[in-house]
Amino acid sequence: MKTLTIKKENCPQTHSCPSVKVCPVGALSQVAFNAPEIDYTKCIACGKCSNFCPKKALILIQQ
């Protein structure tokens, strides 16, 4: 099983997160320029957002 997590120290928090738009199930959201939040009830751990994130702030962890 994989779980998505956010490494906030990698997120610049200076712009709209581009990974929010690539999530196929709408599991990521962002308020202002804060690091994105994950809705674990929606996240399917597909990896699209983590592959898209240029700063590697979104990562899938094997559990």
The name of the CATH architecture is: 2-Layer Sandwich
CATH fold group: Alpha-Beta Plaits
How many strands appear in the DSSP assignment? 4
Structural class by secondary-structure content: mainly beta
Biggest pleated-sheet summary: 2 strands, antiparallel
Uncertain segments: none
Order of helices and strands: EEEHE
Our Rg estimate from Cα atoms comes to 11 Å
For this structure, the quaternary state is: single chain
Measure the end-to-end span. Answer: 5 Å
Coarse morphology: globular
Question: What's the structural blueprint in terms of helices and strands?
Answer:
Elements (H helix, E strand, L loop, with lengths): L1 E5 L21 E2 L7 E2 L9 H5 L5 E5 L1
Explain this structure.
With 63 residues, the chain is mainly β. It is built from one helix and four strands. The chain has one helix at residues 48-52, and strands spanning 2-6, 28-29, 37-38, 58-62. The strands form two sheets. Strands 1-4 form a two-stranded antiparallel ribbon. A hairpin with a 7-residue loop joins strand 2 and strand 3.
Provide tags for this entry.
63 residues, 1 helix, mainly beta, Alpha-Beta Plaits
Question: Short description, anyone?
Answer:
This protein has 63 residues and is mainly beta. It is 8% helix and 22% strand.
